[in-house]
């Protein structure tokens, strides 16, 4: 007869014959050796393996991989990842850091526009100063020349010669002051247009192309002006060696006239294009209330030149009619009176035209100053 017992190690149920009770048996499942208990006895627990008093160190657990966003960084700010990977991520991070240099670049571009407009404004002031000095010099020279003529009628030749010499020197100085002002204005305007070419490249904005066009036309004007001076000098030098009948100096005069015409057209074109550039600057600098002022300046300039030319032509034709009527009357006194009246009318008209032109230039300077201040405000807002 066999009895059922449980293995104390694996709790497997074993059938042991009665003859083996109280004797050592072996579990066929776990190979554990134990003494088969008699009926009513508990099986002995499995013997423990020999262990030392030193506790074994537990094996460290491998932490799960962290995401890139949770990756720790060292105290120096760099990551422990491979350098190539870190460099790629830093490149992406630099996209946000580029906003500051981009804003700084736009501020620098607006500053160049401000400086360019300021240089153009200074050039106009210099030209106005030279023109006023030249006009005053001519006026004083005419006074001294009239004094010399009056002294000659009084038989005072010494004072007449001195007055004539002083008037001649003053006229030369006046011409020099005028052309010096023109030269300085031309240089400052060219440099100012060049500074304006550094305008910010904004979307749907024509500032940079307009500035480049204005600078190009102004540069062509300078080149043709220098060529005109060269051709004029060559014509004057050749006129002293060649006879006018040979036609060489006459051809130089024709070339000089053509070059002067091209230079004048380039000057007008650069002025018109720069006015449109100023209008674009006003629209992009949040100064739309000033955007119509350059166009108003353009319209006023066109009207001024058209009216001035028509008036000069009308006065010239009226003068020819007055002189013709005086010739028909065959009276020398009447001829002198008619020519004197015509000269007075022409002189007054010339003075009025000059004053109006100076007023236009002063208005243009005020427009440039307002636009310059608007550009400075736009730069401060960035």
Brief summary of the model shown:
The chain is mainly alpha-helical. 70% of the residues lie in helices and 4% in strands. The chain has a domain at 1-38.
Keywords summarizing the entry:
mainly alpha; two-stranded antiparallel sheet; single chain; 382 residues; 7 helices
In words, what does this structure look like?
This protein has 382 residues and is mainly α. The protein has a domain at 1-38. Helices cover 70% and strands 4% of the residues. A two-stranded antiparallel ribbon has the order 1-2. A two-stranded antiparallel sheet has the order 3-4.
How many distinct beta strands? 4
Structural shape: rod-shaped
Proportion of β residues?
under 5%
Secondary-structure element string: EEEEHHHHHHH
Structural class, by secondary structure, is mainly alpha
Number of helices: 7
Average predicted local confidence, pLDDT: 77
| Helical amount | over 70%
Q: Give the CA-CA distance, first to last residue.
A: 104 Å
Low-confidence stretches: 49-54, 67-71, 74-81, 83-101
Describe the strand arrangement of the main beta sheet, using strand numbers: 1-2
Specify the biggest β-sheet.
Answer: 2 strands, antiparallel
Radius of gyration, whole Å:
51 Å
């Amino acid at each position: 007869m066999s009895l059922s017992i449980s293995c104390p190690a694996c709790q497997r149920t074993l059938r042991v014959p009665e003859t083996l009770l109280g004797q050592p048996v072996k579990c066929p499942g776990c190979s554990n050796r134990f003494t088969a208990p008699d009926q009513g006895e508990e099986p002995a627990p499995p013997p423990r393996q020999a262990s030392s008093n030193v506790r074994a160190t537990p094996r460290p657990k491998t932490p799960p991989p962290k995401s890139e966003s949770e990756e720790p960084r060292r105290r120096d700010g760099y990551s422990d990842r491979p350098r190539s990977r870190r460099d790629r991520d830093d490149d992406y991070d630099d996209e946000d850091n580029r906003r500051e240099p981009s804003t700084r670049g736009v501020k620098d571009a607006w500053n160049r526009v401000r400086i360019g407009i300021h240089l153009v404004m200074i050039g106009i002031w210099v030209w106005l100063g030279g023109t006023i000095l030249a006009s005053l010099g001519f006026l004083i020279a005419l006074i001294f020349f009239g004094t010399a003529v009056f002294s000659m009628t009084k038989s005072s030749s010494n004072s007449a010669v001195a007055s004539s010499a002083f008037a001649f020197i003053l006229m030369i100085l006046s011409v020099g002051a005028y052309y010096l002002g023109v030269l300085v204005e031309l240089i400052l305007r060219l440099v100012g247009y060049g500074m304006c070419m550094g305008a910010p490249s904004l979307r749907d904005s024509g500032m940079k192309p307009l500035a480049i066009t204005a600078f190009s036309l102004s540069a062509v004007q300078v080149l043709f002006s220098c060529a005109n001076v060269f051709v004029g000098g060559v014509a004057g030098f050749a006129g002293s060696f060649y006879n006018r009948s040979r036609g060489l100096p006459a051809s130089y005069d024709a070339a000089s006239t053509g070059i002067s015409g091209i230079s004048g057209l380039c000057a007008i074109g650069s002025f018109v294009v720069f006015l449109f550039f100023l209008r674009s600057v006003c629209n992009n600098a949040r100064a739309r209330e000033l955007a119509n002022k350059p166009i108003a300046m353009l319209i006023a300039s066109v009207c001024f030149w058209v009216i001035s030319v028509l008036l000069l032509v009308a006065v010239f034709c009226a003068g020819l009619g007055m002189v013709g009527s005086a010739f028909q009357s065959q009276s020398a006194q009447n001829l002198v009176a008619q020519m004197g009246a015509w000269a007075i009318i022409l002189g007054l008209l010339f003075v009025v035209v000059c004053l109006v032109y100076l007023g236009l230039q002063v208005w243009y300077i005020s427009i440039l100053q307002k636009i310059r201040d608007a550009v400075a405000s736009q730069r401060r807002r960035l």
